Structures are given as C-alpha cells and as structure tokens.
Automatic annotation (TrEMBL):
The protein, known as: Transcriptional regulator, Crp/Fnr family
UniProt superkingdom: Bacteria
Keywords of the record: DNA-binding, Transcription, Transcription regulation
GO MF annotations, alphabetized: DNA binding; DNA-binding transcription factor activity
Biological classification of the source: Bacteria, Pseudomonadati, Pseudomonadota, Alphaproteobacteria, Hyphomicrobiales
Keyword DNA-binding in record: yes
Length: 240
C-alpha cells in the first residue's frame, strides 16, 4: 500500500508538519474508517494507536456514576491520543467516534519514536495539547456560568466547525452527553433554538440555519479556544 502524500491530507496537524517530519510519520500512517460509537481509547488501558482525523468527529468522554459527559472534541483539526505526547500511555477517559469518517492511524510506539527524533514534531503536537487544555477549560466555564441553550449552541458550533456541513449527526442522546444533562433538558433547549430560527431538528440530525445567532447565544464560551488553536498552529508553522 502506498504511503499518504502530504498534499492530499485533510488533517490540519499533518498538513502543518515540515516535509521531513511528515515523511518521518508517513510510512507508519494507515488509513482506517471511523465507525459511529467506535471506541478509540479505553479508560486505564494502554493506548495502542493515535488517530489523526481526516473526516468525522471523536469525543473525549468522562464516565461517571451518573452517566457519560463529553469534555472535548477532535475532528480534522486534531488527533486522538494526546496522552502519548505527554509521555504516558493511558488515560481515565474514553475516546469515542461521534460522527463516522476516516483517520490516519499510527502505532503508539512509532509516534513516540518520531517525537523523540524531532523537536519540531513535538512542538506541533504539543501545541495541539495546549489547545485541548483551553477547550476543556472553556467547557468548564460554560457548564458553570451558562444555561443549557447557550451550551448547546456552543457544541453545535464546535461540531459544525469540524464536520464542515450544515447537517450534523446529533441525537438527543448524544446532545445530553455533550451537555451533561438529561434528555428532557436537551429537548427543551432544542425547541428554543428551533423557535429562534437557529437550527432545524430532524431524526438523528440537526441542521444549522443561522450560525451568527448561535454564536450570539453561545457568547464567549465559543471563540477563545478556537482562536487559541489558530494562534498555536500558526506559531508551530512559524517554528518549523
């Protein structure tokens, strides 16, 4: 099987690498499908692979006694397997596919060897880790200070960014997990956003109708993490 060419890659982190660093990874990258609800990381178990998302969406999830709560999202801007960059091979959290797609998968040992060999590669992926820390921090802020409607608007915007389509695969069950609320709360919030002309609900789908209104409702829960990602990616490319 031929190795991927950087010019054909969708993943923004892989595209941001220097040619030398991309070629360091390319022989070990394997294109794989991402199936809905596929578990990419199992809590407290060794992480065998990292996945650079090309299309689709993966959630980082906390499994609590009261149910699962989503704490982060990764799409074509990022990758699943952040602990590997930090020098550890496991996490108490789950990584699960929330929208099917494809990824370029690399064995943990191969990624770790490449990180040890290249300071620039570690710089790019390390900056992504920083952007994820900011994203999780924004989630904490949103959950503490904003109502369910604003938090739902934020998650719709984040999903919209990563899937690059107006029709998003979002069930009430997945939205409840995103927001850490019960399904009746999601139903009520969805109806409010629909009545305001922001979205249209279909079975298993949410259609984005007015992104500007969603941004207004989400307030400053949306934007800082996205701006930090862009700043860090530009910084990483400038150092390459």
């Amino acid at each position: 099987m031929s190795q991927p060419q950087q010019s054909a890659i969708r993943n923004r982190l892989l595209k941001a690498l220097t040619p030398d660093d991309f070629n360091r990874l390319a022989p070990h990258l394997k294109a794989v499908p991402l199936a809905m609800r596929q578990q990419l990381i199992t809590p407290d178990q060794p992480i065998s692979h990292a996945c650079f998302v090309e299309e689709g969406l993966a959630s980082m999830i906390v499994d609590t006694c009261e149910g699962r709560v989503e704490i982060g999202l990764a799409g074509y801007e990022g990758f699943v397997g952040v602990p590997l960059v930090l020098g550890t091979d496991r996490t108490p959290h789950i990584a699960m596919v929330q929208a099917e797609g494809t990824a370029l998968r690399i064995a943990a040992l191969e990624l770790e060897a490449a990180l040890d060999a290249s300071r620039a590669l570690r710089g790019v992926l390390g900056r992504y880790v920083q952007s994820m820390i900011v994203q999780v921090g924004q989630s904490v802020y949103a959950n503490a200070d904003y109502n369910v409607e604003a938090r739902l608007a934020r998650w719709i915007l984040m999903t919209h960014d990563r899937l690059r389509t107006d029709e998003l695969p979002m069930t009430h069950e997945s939205m409840a997990m995103m927001l850490g609320v019960r399904r009746p709360g999601v139903t009520s919030a969805t109806h409010i956003l629909e009545a305001a002309g922001m979205i249209k609900g279909k079975r298993g789908r949410v259609i984005v109708l007015d992104r500007e209104k969603l941004m207004e409702l989400a307030g400053d829960t949306y934007g800082p993490a996205e701006a930090e990602y862009e700043r860090l990616l530009a910084e990483a490319q400038g150092c390459g």
